[in-house]
Amino acid sequence: PSKWLATAQSQELITELEASLLKNSQSPNSGFAHNLIEVKHGGKNPGTYAHEILAVEYAGWIRPDFRIRVNQTFIDYRRGNLTVVREKKNDYLAEFRQTRALKMAISSVHELFDMMPELSQISRQCVVANLINPIAVFEAIPLPVLAEKLYSASEIGKLFDVSANKIGRIANDNNMKTEQYGEYHLDKSRHSDKQVQAFRYNNHALNTFRHILIAEQEAKEHALV
């Protein structure tokens, strides 16, 4: 999940979702809009939780076939194929449409649970409710999807206006490529289409880089005096 969160696409989605919730009068100071991603430690349901839209988007990212099912369900709904019309009690066509929609949703639910076995029982219920009734309007419900945000050397370099190579050298000199500071991921090489192993840094590493770079700058200033 952290690898998906590090992509530019996921960050753009989060930004757009925050703007959409704010536009719909869900201010950043109330409700769920200000807490699209939340990590809970301890308690009855520990884990990382996220807005349901992010949950479905992440599931589609790791499984293209799941994304196809969700998109097809949306298309069928827009075309009216999933609309349940109860003009008469013996409206068999409406019952058939409802049954088909339920089967599609249940199939999608099973696939999602297979991909994400760590989901809590509460989150499973939320996913079921959202996918089984696609024509209903649901409140924003947190679902466990994402881990702590991780940064590449290039991203950290841009934050501090230094090169990615410098960040890498600092990390090597200070033995920072450990679990305390992040984790390794497979990334696309900058020089070819091959995948390479690259270290992604967490917030603790980010603060460590900040202190090291500040100390380095102060040392340079003292040397000039």
Automatic annotation (TrEMBL):
InterPro entries: KilA/APSES_HTH, KilA_N. Residues 1-77 form the KilA-N domain. Coiled coil: none annotated. This is KilA-N domain-containing protein. It comes from Candidatus Regiella insecticola 5.15.
